[in-house]
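Consider the following input, taken from an annotated entry for Asp-tRNA(Asn)/Glu-tRNA(Gln) amidotransferase A subunit family amidase (Roseicyclus mahoneyensis).
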Amino acid sequence: MNDVAGLPTTYGSEIFADNVPEHDDSLVRAVRSAGGLILGKSNVPEWSAGANTRNRVYGVTANPYDVTRSCAGSSGGSAVALATGMAPLATGSDLGGSLRNPAAFCGVVGFRPTPGVVPGPKREMALLPMSTDGPMARTPEDAALLLSVLARHDPRDPWSPAAGFLSPDLPLVDLASLRFASSEDLGFAPTEGIVRSTLRDRIDRLGPYLGPLHEGAPDCSGADRIFAVLRAVGFLGQHRERQVLFPQKIGPNVHANIEEGLSYSAADVAGVLALQGTYFRAWTDFFETVDILLCPAVTISPRPWRELYPTQIDGQPMQSYYHWLAMAYATTIAGFPSVSIPCGRDSAGMPFGLQVVGRRHDDARVLAVARELAAVFASDSVMNLPPPDLGALRSAPPLSQVEGFRDL
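Applying the prediction step yields:
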């Protein structure tokens, strides 16, 4: 989704299938100025809409642990590149979990920072900081290294702080001295039984290493409504003109967002903005007595990529194509930093992502806690996740030959 001079940059859209930018995005310039080498671009869903990395330009990106399953999205290509050793670092963006969902599905690290830490000077809805860029990596330490480059002041982003650059060296934290809460569903997210049971097992295994721990979550009342309205209004503002000009080149997810945005009234938007303020304060109150919240990063185990999006979870119908992202968008609308770290496999044999959430602007400590947890995982045969089988991937038939590769 970031322009790189001289490299095809399509945003997963047929409208931009032949687009080759002449200039680097400011994020890319920041990476280059720190000595980073740009190896290439990775695949995304159309305009990052939908957490299944499929589009009509480049087709499907599958899960490296099972090529019949989804790698999630929107930063699915980045997650797969990391998991398979194509690159040590990658960037992604996150609105409803697009850094964290693919990290969870593919067994890597995806960090959503506090809004403004990584500036978005080209974000069309500048005063609505729902979407943010962030780092992806194989370890929390590597994510912190990339974040130290991405975190910078940019006056073109109204949420960018005047200072507050982050060091690549994470602070030392003692897990036993921190106050933890855990939740299977944050009190509202439609969460699959396999995910619930895996979370319970991991919390039991982590218990001896952690400080005071209790079950609990912030009050997430209104989360679905807040995200639905603000997401749709954002897509309406960004993509309505494209829908009018190129209706045949707009995919079903983007189209659904725009139409949903058109259905809301000014009263709907005003009501949600007020509700979001109440929601944010509930999260702030919760973290007065809790340092770190642990929960699943995603509500489901990876499903077949042919399923564009889940229509049900354990028999519960989904309200929309993005309802299954509730575990991730709960933190988005509160604006709290969160990271998904690999924590072994679920009972289906697929990677399980543990989400670590901390206070606003406590990004460094969230990553430091993730680092300490990852060290615990490494010494546990259940919580340690081995890399994908590259030999099996080499021998698998090319996805491009599979029926439905470019269909939506």
